[in-house]
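Two quick folds needed for the group meeting slides. Do the first one here.
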Amino acid sequence: MEHPDLQRFRPAVLATLVAVSVALELVVHVALGMETVYSHFFYFPIVLGAVWYGLRGIPIALFLSALYLADTLFLSGTIGFEPAARAAMFVSIPLVIGLVSDSMRKKHDRMIAGMAGVHGPQAAAGAGHVRRGEALIRHLAPPNAKKMREAGDVPGLVRALGHKDPGVQYAAAEALGELREPSAVPPLMDLLAADRYSGVRWKAAEALARIGEPAVVPLVGALHHPDEDVRWKAAIALGEIGDGRAIPPLVELLGDPDRFVQSRAAYALGEFGTRATPLLCLALANGPPSVRRGAALALQKIRDLAALGDLLRAAGDPDGSVRSAALEALMHHGEEGYRRILLYLSASQATERAKVFQAIREVSNPRLLQGFVPLLHEADGESREFILSVIGAGERNDGPEESSPGA
């Protein structure tokens, strides 16, 4: 809670922020003609006014909105949809914040008034009423996860996971993860799967990862949850735990219908290192396209030399996304990877060579192509000419600061 002595500075702070907002409006909007970006500063006085004064802070938003719309009308002769929508946001955001702030303040005042009632008409009851009042405050106050963690109060922390305040849930999940308490796995799994704020879900997944082995089986089960947010968070937690039992189901998750879940599964598999290489190479050869692509992404992170041959074969994959992922994985192996690509090109038929050329053209990071330069003397003429043309085009797109390599 803010110290009472600091509350007297609120008007001065708001006045300063409003003055700066007005100055920005006159200089940036009116004088320079810029219509956006600068107005984001308006949210500082608008939001602070609503937090500190509730609905009484709305006049700040109304003033700045009116000033912005008036200047827009003065400069362009009309008020379009975007300025009107922006002004509406200036008012609607503090309106919501103000309603919440006033509601919280009223609840706090009612609690204090109730406590005062204990000590007022029944003051003759003395210390007994004081103790009951303190107990009521402790009951109404949110649980203190830090103190419960220090006391090792696991049951209390588990109960706090079900608190209506997401902040309490977050702190309780963090504390249970720090305690590495196996008995907390079921309620943390419930919190992970609950329809809650993403931050609370993430903290539940993080806590499960810290608990480790006892959470593996439930997390593997969560890889089939209907909510993709739960699936990818469970995958990341399994990658952090590093239990080998999770490798097969994570490889299966590479075929998830959600592209982001696929990428997180690949990232998690990369955390297992070379232990995952055999199964990933098998998936790279025999899985459906999304699984093959995910396997190549995971192998890129692992950088196991034993996978070079499998990645090289995937460079001729019929699916373009798989070819691109396999090529980038080979490039991340450094000189040996680039040399393998050039040898593959030299030995390939025209149709296969064309597929690899297209994949090279689609490399997501153009700077990766620079790794070919020291080895171009080993390439055949067509490959050398093509790679130099792609590098040159990439450098022209990147701008004049990049220097073109010599032939």
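Then this one, please, same format:
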Amino acid sequence: MASNRRIKVLIADDMVELRSNIRRMLGSQDSIQVIGEAGDGEEALRLAKEMHPHVILMDINMPKLDGLKVTEALAKEQPNIQVVMMSIQSEQEYFRRAMKAGAKDYLTKPFSSGDLSDTILGVFNKWLKDRPDLLEEESKAEILTFFATKGGVGRTTLATNLAISLAKRGKRTLLIDSSLQFGDVAITLNQNAGKNIYNIVEKEEEITPSKIEANITHHPSGLDLLLAPLEPAYADAVKTSHIKTIIETLSPAYQFIIFDTASQMGNNELQILDQTGLVLLVCTLEISSLKNTKLCLKTLSDIRFDIGKVKLVINKDISNVGISRKDIEEGLAIPIFSVVPMDYETAQTALNQGEPFVLKFPRSILAHAMEAMTDKILSSGVEVIEEEPAGAFLKLKKLIFGS
């Protein structure tokens, strides 16, 4: 190949079986990555604008908008996307019409896996030849990390619901459970953890893209998951170098990668934080949680971590406990980014049924708070939360925050 990057491919065909067969044929190609599928022409055009694939495998006949019209539109609007037209018609006239529309090659169905991969590689390499201006750095996922210094504060619940919320909005999102000993993402989302991060590293072989993707779990919401090992004994097999490789490999395929970490600051957590663009530091109004949160912020400051990346999330918020948001912000020297109210019944019911509350209870105050958090993450700026009157919890305030 002319480049060591992976070729991002979008499949556009109204036949589900054909799309599945193409995925299978390309599954062993570490130089090629299928990033999405479209079942009609309008969806293909929309996904092309969102996903920026290198190559689109385009069926010539599709509902709503046929492949020729989609290709013509892409040639005008996104000329860097290379289209390979697919059709059961082998006549020269179809080939001519495809080339006139802007396609770069033509595959007659059925085709072999060798013909498919060779065509994709040929089109991609021809596109790159003598055009170094097109070798700019790939867009990469924004990495968010949910971190907490104490268990039981609802870190996993928030991570799963935010990830689902982003996926609902059409954002390509991956949630990685990096609480490697006792991760709860699988049970929280009612998923089988047979495919997990340990399977990627267990044989101490080279970590390939196809091996990583074979262990991704696809949630019905559209969210992708990389789950924690089945047993705590397997956790030590996952090294910081593995995490770095996984992030670098998967980042071009997603818009958001979210980590749900363990409540500790070990080597793996530091590796994740080092590559994180936004740390969502979760705490509750319990004294021990606030105390540990302050210690966490001090530790991050001591290791010269960019505190500007840290956003404070107050979970299980209840009124009339004697400590205000102003007290917290002054004591921790960091503004509150988001507040999620206490609603034990909603949260527990959703958790016990393995369905996130943003899906099961979309009108609940919890879902509303999560959607508001999603809005802030997707927006360019951070909304300032209105301050409440100062509380009178002075003795405990001094104990937690100092005088």
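Slide caption for protein two: The radius of gyration is 24 Å.
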